[in-house]
Amino acid sequence: MNLGRTVLAQLMDFVPSYEFRQCVERYNGNYKVKSFSCRDQFLCMAFAQMTYRESLRDIEACLRVAKT
Question: Count of domains in the chain?
Answer without folding.
Answer: 1
